[in-house]
Amino acid sequence: MDPAPRSPNGFLSSLAADDFELIRQHLRTADLVQEHVLVEFGDTLKRAYLPHKGVISLVVKLARGENVQVALVGRDSIFGSFSAIGDATALNSAVVLVPGVSSSIGIDRLRAAAAQSATLRAMLMRHGMAIYAQIQQTAGCNASHTVESRLARCLLHTRDLSGSDKIVLTQESMAQMIGARRNSVSLVANTLQQANFIRYSRGHIEITDLEGLSNTSCECYATVKAQYERLLGPRCLS
């Protein structure tokens, strides 16, 4: 596989030249195939992923079979940051939510590079903290906010990370997003469609009123965005 380009991913583009050089020759391109499982809970994460396009969903699997999404990783960040500076055992499953392309690097290679550079270690920590902040906010959101506002938040976040107003999501993925059962997904999506915020048909979603969807979302969308900007600087998601 050819070395992956630097610029499409926010983590890579933010690295100092010397830090990027430590990992450049080990970067490879990898397709992100929708619904492909990158790692299961409890397994050892062997590679980190830095999406150019596409979105990775971090999912917690509960004993009764429910799956709940706790965070999203897209073109502004990296999946595997904490594994590179700590324990590589996966604390959650990671599944491709939106297909695309990613840079990828072996965790061992990334860990070795981080051992050589305090600034690279600091960058990995900041990205890990940003995802941790997202996980905390998601936990509070799922416990306190309406399913409509939760779905609006998740659609806005997915739009930011995928760079498109058109998203294809399975009912199962949408149920995981909002921490609800699959049979409630259509009802919730239809509520947003009746308000003319989205068009929804058989998993195909188009955001048609960004302002309206933003107003429907709870404060968690803006809170997570502010945390990312505080930790990582303005997010280049145009």
Describe the structure.
This protein is α+β, with helices and mostly antiparallel strands. 46% of the residues lie in helices and 23% in strands. The protein contains 10 helices and 8 strands. It has helices at residues 10-14, 17-24, 81-85, 107-116, 118-144, 147-162, 171-178, 185-194, 210-216, 220-232; strands at 28-32, 37-39, 47-61, 67-73, 93-106, 166-168, 198-201, 204-207. The strands form 2 sheets. Strands 1, 2, 3, 4 and 5 form a 5-stranded antiparallel sheet that branches. A 3-stranded antiparallel sheet has the order 6-8-7. A hairpin with a 5-residue loop joins strand 3 and strand 4 (67-73). Helix 5 (118-144) packs antiparallel against helix 10, helix 6 (147-162) crosses helix 8 and helix 6 crosses helix 9. The radius of gyration is 17 Å and the shape is globular. The model is unreliable at 1-5 (pLDDT under 50).
Question: How would you describe this structure in keywords?
Answer:
single chain, 238 residues, alpha+beta, 5-stranded antiparallel β-sheet, 3-stranded antiparallel β-sheet, 23% strand, disordered N terminus
Enumerate the spans where pLDDT stays under 50 for 5 or more consecutive residues: 1-5
Structural class by helix and strand composition? alpha+beta
Distance between the termini: 29 Å
Strand content: 15-25%
Q: Percentage of helical residues?
A: 40-55%
Number of helices: 10
Find the count of extended strands (DSSP E, 2+ residues).
8
- The dominant shape is globular
Mind sketching the topology for me?
Blueprint (H helix, E strand, L loop, with lengths): L9 H5 L2 H8 L3 E5 L4 E3 L7 E15 L5 E7 L7 H5 L7 E14 H10 L1 H27 L2 H16 L3 E3 L2 H8 L6 H10 L3 E4 L2 E4 L2 H7 L3 H13 L6
Antiparallel strand pairs: 1-5, 2-5, 3-4, 3-5, 6-8, 7-8
